[in-house]
Each structure stands twice: as C-alpha cells, then as structure tokens.
Amino acid sequence: MRVLVLQPGYLGDTVFLGPAVRALKARWPEGRVGLCVTPRGAPAARLLPGCDEVLVFDKRGADRGPAGLWRAGRRLRAFGAELALVPHVSARTGLLAWLSGAPRRIGYAPLCTERVRLDRGRPFVDRALVLAERAGAPGEPALALDAPAAHAAYAEGVLAGARRPVVGLVPGAEWATKRWAAERFAALAAELVRDGATPVLLGGPSERALASRIQALSGGALRDTTGNAIDEAVAVLARCDLVVGGDTGLVHCARALQRPALVLFGPTAPERHRFTHRERALTVGIACQPCHDHGPPTCPLGHHGCLAQLEVAQVAGAARALLQLP
Ligand code: SF4
After folding, report:
1. Looking at residue 220, what is its pLDDT?
2. Ligand 1 contact via 177 beta carbon (within 6 Å)
C-alpha cells in the first residue's frame, strides 16, 4: 500500500502527524508512507518514525498559484498513492489530493472521496489519527520524533562546556499573540543562570532580532542558536533538560523528542494537546482564554492579558519544579 498524507501547515502540524504515520507504517510495513508538507515542516517530517518519503508543497513560494498547484500535483502523482489522508481542511489541499491521483481520499477537505467532519474540540494529534483509523490503521496518540544524527556534532559544539541543566528557550511564534514578552524571557534566563543552568535561545531566522534583544536584556550570558536550520535546532532540543516556550512548533518538537517542556499558553487551548507527566501547560486562566484555534494576529480586546499577566516568578517556579531544582 502506498499512502500519502497531505498536511501543508505549520511545523507543529507536521509533528502532530507522527502518531498517524506510525499507525500507517505498522499496518502496512512493506508499503510506503509519503508526507506532503510545507518547506518549514519538511525537516521534521523526515524525522517522524515511519515516514518513507517527504514531498514538499511550497504553497507560498515556488508552488504558489494555480500553475504551482498543478506542478505540485504532478509531483505527487509520481508517488503513485493508492490512499490519501487529508487532515488539512482547505479546498486547495483537497484539490491537491485529487491531483495526486489517489483513488481513495479520506479527510476533512473538499473533494475527498470519504469526507469526514472535523471535530475541532479534539486534540490536534487525533485529527490525522482518526483518518488513519478509518483507513484500517488504528494507533496510539503519543508524539515521537527522531533526533537528527547528522547534526549531532553541531549540537555538541553548541553545548560544549555547558553547565547542566541546559534549558532551551523558544521566545518566538508565528502569531504575535502567542509570544511572551522579550523582557520576561530575559528575566527568566537571568534567574536560570543564577540557578546554575545554561539557557539556550532557539528560533527561526525571522526571530534573530528578538533573540538579540533577549540576549542584551539578560546580560549576554545565553547561547544563541536562533536562525539555524530546523534540524539543527531539533538536534539541540534533543539535548535540553527542559524547553520553555509558547504553543509553537519547536516546543512541540521538543515534546515529541520526549524532552520535559513548559508550554506558556495565551490565546490557544491547552486542551488541544495531550500532555505527559514530563510536561506542564501554564495559563493564567482569564475569562477570554482561549480565543482562537491558532492565535489571532492581535488581541481582539487590546490588552493581551493572557500572556501579559503571566509573571516571571510563575514560569521560573514551574521550570524549577520540572528540573527538580530547589
Ligand atoms: S482575547 Fe484574551 S485570550 Fe485572546 S489574545 Fe486577547 S487576552 Fe489573549
């Protein structure tokens, strides 16, 4: 069986495919599981256990517009899928699945041969897992990601001489309303340094300025890896004793690597995730939370209290508890 899973979303969305991918591979071990994801999701997709092939759909770049969609469809057709799972909801993804030539398409998007109603109240990992189960491949919802062996030397270099515990800090997020303030990350980092820990900043190229600001505010004692490739960041995350950040892709990568994680929730819902005993979701619990599935570009109430009211002392206390520090 050749199965294609189409999820051209964010990095976190790719990580959440993991349980379904493992279920499909367990059901058809001699088959081939291909993942169609965005360029940002591709490095993580290659690290998902059970993934045989990654097909990139650059919907905002090279594959933009009707001609790009047609070209991407031709690439997918070459995969020869007998079954497609479509956990993404957009009509464009439904059309791409149709262009792939897969005769059976199970999913939430239009043009699926078996269109399923999306239950938005369920955890994100369940979205693809439900579709896999419908295809005859039930599985368990635990996240998993392999550490990239090719970048082990890079990560060892970043952490050379670091005092334990090493704490990864992920201050960025796609949406501004999911970011805790730079000043607070800096204050948290300074507290961690006083506790004897080594904070390491992680993030994408667009977050370099944010990381520099945190570095300057905290007194310059942090290791800054911001702007590196995603698989390099994943190699560093795999060596962290704790990762602290918002509801964002690199933090979910850390969770899938089985790293202890402290997730700071603002406009989004902790209930959309299945946390383990190594993880803690922190939220101030004001009445307007949650207000959005993925995080609005700006706070509709103008005060951003969901993260503005989250104090450094609370986060530092939760971090110490997860690190089992006094
Ligand atoms: S409405 Fe509430 S939950 Fe949404 S961004 Fe504003 S403060 Fe946060």
Report:
1. 77
2. yes
